[in-house]
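Kindly inspect this one:
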Amino acid sequence: MIIRILRHGETEYNRDWRFLGWKDLPLTEEGRRQLFASAEHPKTVYVTGLQRTRQTAEILYPGAEYIPIPELKEMNFGSFEGRTWAEMQKDPKFTAWIASDRYNVCPGGEGRREFSERICKALLQLVKQNAEEGRQEITIVAHGGTIMAAMERFCTDIPGDYMGWRFGNGEGYLLEASLEGEEMHWHVIRRLSYLKNAGRVHLYYGEGRGKTSIAMGTALRALEQGADVTVVQFCKKEGSGETRQLEKLGASVFYGKNTPGFVSAMSAEEKEQLKTEQTKLLEYVAYERQSPMNCPGRLLVLDEVCAALEQKVLEEELLWKVILRKPSNTEIILTGRHPAEWLKEAADYVTELKEVRHPYRDGLAARKGIEF
């Protein structure tokens, strides 16, 4: 079964970074403007009974039947609702709740264990019911915590890690669900976003020339608009002409290897060393390197990342996390000749470049200023 599960749009409390929980706030006007209608037209959309999920569903899926499932409501934060993290730094009940990894019960509310049990029981029942009735797809508009609890329990791609599934308003996941008795497993197909200005994932692949050129042209455009641009060239050593110019304009550029020759000609030991180095590099640019506070967004170019996976010189699970758990304001470009099938599924833009004619076939070598 295919599941689309999404978080509602922005409310006043989301905008102000206040704990929202069971408070029944509407979307802000800006929250409404940020969303756009989906090309999908499900007949039924499940919401939670709180108006922000119904209002979001009406924008994303106009004309559907909206069925409330109150058991899918956000965690009840009790007395924490309406307050910001900063306001509660000296509240011993709040600090104890955080220290318990949210398992303590919020005063007047729920703890993570009770909340997750409620959510997962309701979702299992909902999926089983729809499967028994012969439906192949269901669409749900719920809350951030609801989806985090469900992903922690049901996502078998990357088990665990409740807080690692955080994402923005209007975003969510396209999933493939399988049932085995009372057990349910989710496989993530693609990150979904119905925010007009949220970052997307691009894939440019194939035998045709121009994959890196497209990526670098987009990087140039992003720099002009003030974005923080990071380029990683996997399986390549320093020397590309376009990257030098991008660095002069403010991009940060990193190279996957520092030795000449093709990765395919490396020994097993050399490949293992390169895998370690390139995996550390991806971890650094994705999680440790900080963008300037005033930049409107981030562009991360992962040039020849498909080759890195094909040659087994990059940790695939890490790339999966980088792509499917990316921040809302991050755009990611992937290039390479032969992408893994899951990359084709995960990308929002997918372009295959086919070679029709190339001077290389006539014996012409790569030319400075054109190919490099």
Q: What stands out?
A: Residues 112-132 form the longest helix (21 residues). The longest strand covers residues 183-193.
